[in-house]
Amino acid sequence: MHLDLALLGFGNVGQELAELLLRKRIELEADFGLTWRVVGISARSKGTALDPAGIDLEAALSAVAGGGTLAGLHQGPPLADTGAFIAACPAAVFFEMTTTNPQDGQPATDHVRAALGKGAHVVSANKGPVAFAHRELLALARLKRVGFFFESTVMDGAPVLGVGREGLPASHIRRIRGVFNSTTNYILTRMERDRLGFEDAVRAAQEIGVAEADPTLDVDGWDSAIKTVILANVLMGADLRPKDAAPVGIRDVTVDDVHAALAEGARIRLVCEAARGEDGTVRASVAPQRVPLEDPLASVMGTSSLVDFEADTLRRLTLIEHDPGPDTTAYGLLVDMLNIARGRHLV
Amino acid sequence: MHLDLALLGFGNVGQELAELLLRKRIELEADFGLTWRVVGISARSKGTALDPAGIDLEAALSAVAGGGTLAGLHQGPPLADTGAFIAACPAAVFFEMTTTNPQDGQPATDHVRAALGKGAHVVSANKGPVAFAHRELLALARLKRVGFFFESTVMDGAPVLGVGREGLPASHIRRIRGVFNSTTNYILTRMERDRLGFEDAVRAAQEIGVAEADPTLDVDGWDSAIKTVILANVLMGADLRPKDAAPVGIRDVTVDDVHAALAEGARIRLVCEAARGEDGTVRASVAPQRVPLEDPLASVMGTSSLVDFEADTLRRLTLIEHDPGPDTTAYGLLVDMLNIARGRHLV
Prior knowledge:
The structure is a homodimer. Chain A is an alpha/beta fold.
């Protein structure tokens, strides 16, 4: 099988994906009979390249590593915007890796809709389209008999959605709990280990690149809410939006709170939860909670993350991803592409 | 799709599977388009029933629950032994659920070989055929283009092998570590919590049905060795046998050892490990080790179990199954059957 690929976004994750594709090229062909070629890259600040004959991916990586743009790799007339790029690009798979918009998931939702609409597969690391339009986009993908996978939206490359799809079939998941946000967990870890105040811990997270210059999305629980809603909608059949989780962040957690909890055998964690109530309705929540040290949720330190499934079949199953990074996010994208090549979207 | 099923073994796990099949009947048809019928049950002490027109599974459960045999459900001439049953039974899927023989995996390996040889799929909860003959049986299954799945052999129904196959494709797994044996972990937990001596803890495990009357296999590390070798052979390409893990059990661990470790911030766990060395060779080991409390391995209490994968893609991924039982083993068998119905053995 051969797949022509297009990358929407060429930041950290996009570049890691390019490097991983190059590193795994021989294995993908030997073990899965899969060959690939990148025919388009569309990046906000780094320009656009489209070449149906194939783009030299190493040249693309070099161009942006040197601070340049992709313009030199482009063939054909200039393209007005990402919509024009998607329409013109003859890729079989589009990777959506632009920045997540936490308000409405745009314009990434439009990107995904356009790509699926023309009968291409979509692999998304962007959480917006899944959190805001999963039902619609899944229906469109099924109509077109193409894949719409997004393993990297929750816990990077850890097979959280894959376990739901492949490992827990014919199960009713009653509750999903977890620690999904690396930045806040890193901040809480530094507040505990080094007795840093909240503001100092945020700065420490920014210094090592774990927190954004504006850490609001993470610190106020919105990133966690988006991920919680994705799991509730995809694995529990809910139709929630991030605001339905009414997230409470960690801004009001003090060093004293952290150490008082510890003295009583607990840790404060930003706990994400989706649970089906007696009435059958799934409710989502995100809030700091004291978690007993015996609970695996309390063992998650630094940037690691964890998810806990409770089902009618397996009573409780926990997954932990240790030390994630843009490279593990890229790996989740590669797995999605492989699962499309293996036809996992069809049965 | 319709599958005719045969059950080899009708003890705790076989009966749980029968109940789960009945409980999930409507869902399997609605969600997966899968209908099924049991056409044969072969049990050591409970007799044999073969009926190509379909066995009433509820009647089979009632018969054995009342201490009776399956003889009243049998149609046709008597069958000399399990080999004759397999030859005569027109099932598309054989579930191998007889007792694991830790010396050579027999006669279960012969059962699996015979079923695959006649072009039937095999789902095994029996660890013997996988630990002793995985390569041969997998080659036979591929030749016949049938499925040979065995998710329940390691950590019951937790998707350990499924994660290896579906969640970590195109990865090199460098090391697998875990706590795979419920009995020894329960014993170590009681030695810690209740300061029971080793012998008393074994008796406590026997009283609640966690340990066998003869606990040798568990206590001396052989069950752990078998599972470690299964993971090494299936997920790391090794070709080891249980004795290659040279298991050291927990017989010599004392209450004082357990509490001395705890005082120094560690727990004693029967750690199973398979690791690829510098020379490319995979080595397996099973031995009690002190594990720091921060390590998720130390957080596994009672009958729960854990596996930890280290790979070139995801740095470290941990799976924990909490509170397993014969019903979660049965769920692993059901998942394997579903994955056969979904053609997961073909791509």
